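Annex B. Sample input.
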Amino acid sequence: MLVRDAREADLPAVAEMIDDFVKGHRAEHHPRSLERLRAAYFGETRVANLLVASRDERLIGMVQWSLFYDQFWSVLGVRGEWLYVRPEARGLGIA
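Annex B, continued. Sample output.
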Protein backbone atom coordinates (compact mmCIF):
# COMPACT_ATOMS: atom_id res chain seq x y z
CA MET A 1 0.00 0.00 0.00
CA LEU A 2 1.16 3.52 -0.80
CA VAL A 3 -0.15 6.75 0.79
CA ARG A 4 0.59 9.94 -1.13
CA ASP A 5 -0.69 13.39 -2.05
CA ALA A 6 -3.51 13.23 -4.56
CA ARG A 7 -2.85 14.28 -8.14
CA GLU A 8 -5.25 15.80 -10.62
CA ALA A 9 -5.17 12.53 -12.55
CA ASP A 10 -6.71 10.85 -9.46
CA LEU A 11 -9.90 12.91 -9.62
CA PRO A 12 -12.04 10.36 -11.52
CA ALA A 13 -11.22 7.69 -8.91
CA VAL A 14 -11.81 10.20 -6.09
CA ALA A 15 -15.20 11.09 -7.59
CA GLU A 16 -16.04 7.37 -7.78
CA MET A 17 -15.18 6.95 -4.09
CA ILE A 18 -17.27 10.01 -3.20
CA ASP A 19 -20.23 8.54 -5.08
CA ASP A 20 -19.94 5.39 -2.96
CA PHE A 21 -19.32 7.35 0.24
CA VAL A 22 -22.47 9.46 -0.20
CA LYS A 23 -24.84 6.51 -0.66
CA GLY A 24 -27.75 6.79 1.75
CA HIS A 25 -27.06 10.48 2.48
CA ARG A 26 -29.47 13.26 1.48
CA ALA A 27 -26.80 14.50 -0.95
CA GLU A 28 -26.61 11.17 -2.79
CA HIS A 29 -28.30 12.54 -5.91
CA HIS A 30 -26.88 16.05 -5.71
CA PRO A 31 -24.79 16.83 -8.81
CA ARG A 32 -21.02 16.90 -8.29
CA SER A 33 -18.49 17.82 -10.94
CA LEU A 34 -14.84 17.00 -11.49
CA GLU A 35 -14.21 20.70 -12.13
CA ARG A 36 -15.39 21.64 -8.65
CA LEU A 37 -13.25 18.87 -7.15
CA ARG A 38 -10.29 20.15 -9.17
CA ALA A 39 -10.85 23.71 -7.95
CA ALA A 40 -11.22 22.61 -4.32
CA TYR A 41 -8.01 20.56 -4.21
CA PHE A 42 -5.82 21.94 -7.01
CA GLY A 43 -7.15 25.40 -7.90
CA GLU A 44 -5.67 28.82 -7.17
CA THR A 45 -7.72 29.12 -4.00
CA ARG A 46 -7.81 25.48 -2.94
CA VAL A 47 -9.59 24.88 0.32
CA ALA A 48 -8.00 21.65 1.47
CA ASN A 49 -5.47 18.94 0.66
CA LEU A 50 -6.15 15.35 -0.22
CA LEU A 51 -4.18 12.21 0.57
CA VAL A 52 -4.94 8.96 -1.21
CA ALA A 53 -4.05 5.35 -0.48
CA SER A 54 -3.40 2.97 -3.36
CA ARG A 55 -2.83 -0.72 -3.72
CA ASP A 56 -1.71 -2.26 -6.99
CA GLU A 57 -2.23 1.10 -8.77
CA ARG A 58 -5.90 1.31 -7.61
CA LEU A 59 -6.99 4.07 -5.24
CA ILE A 60 -8.58 2.43 -2.23
CA GLY A 61 -8.89 5.30 0.23
CA MET A 62 -8.68 9.03 0.79
CA VAL A 63 -8.73 11.69 3.46
CA GLN A 64 -9.10 15.44 3.19
CA TRP A 65 -6.86 17.49 5.47
CA SER A 66 -6.26 21.13 6.26
CA LEU A 67 -4.06 23.16 8.55
CA PHE A 68 -5.42 25.01 11.57
CA TYR A 69 -3.90 27.18 14.25
CA ASP A 70 -4.42 26.34 17.93
CA GLN A 71 -4.53 29.66 19.77
CA PHE A 72 -4.16 28.12 23.22
CA TRP A 73 -1.01 26.16 22.43
CA SER A 74 0.31 28.54 19.75
CA VAL A 75 0.97 25.74 17.26
CA LEU A 76 -0.19 24.65 13.82
CA GLY A 77 -2.11 21.42 13.59
CA VAL A 78 -3.71 19.23 10.95
CA ARG A 79 -7.39 18.39 10.83
CA GLY A 80 -8.40 15.28 8.89
CA GLU A 81 -11.92 14.96 7.50
CA TRP A 82 -13.88 12.83 5.05
CA LEU A 83 -11.87 9.67 5.60
CA TYR A 84 -13.07 6.99 3.19
CA VAL A 85 -11.81 3.47 2.46
CA ARG A 86 -13.36 1.30 -0.25
CA PRO A 87 -15.38 -1.59 1.19
CA GLU A 88 -13.04 -4.26 -0.18
CA ALA A 89 -10.07 -2.64 1.58
CA ARG A 90 -11.64 -2.11 5.00
CA GLY A 91 -10.08 -3.92 7.92
CA LEU A 92 -6.60 -3.80 6.40
CA GLY A 93 -5.29 -0.94 8.58
CA ILE A 94 -5.48 1.75 5.91
CA ALA A 95 -7.10 4.38 8.11
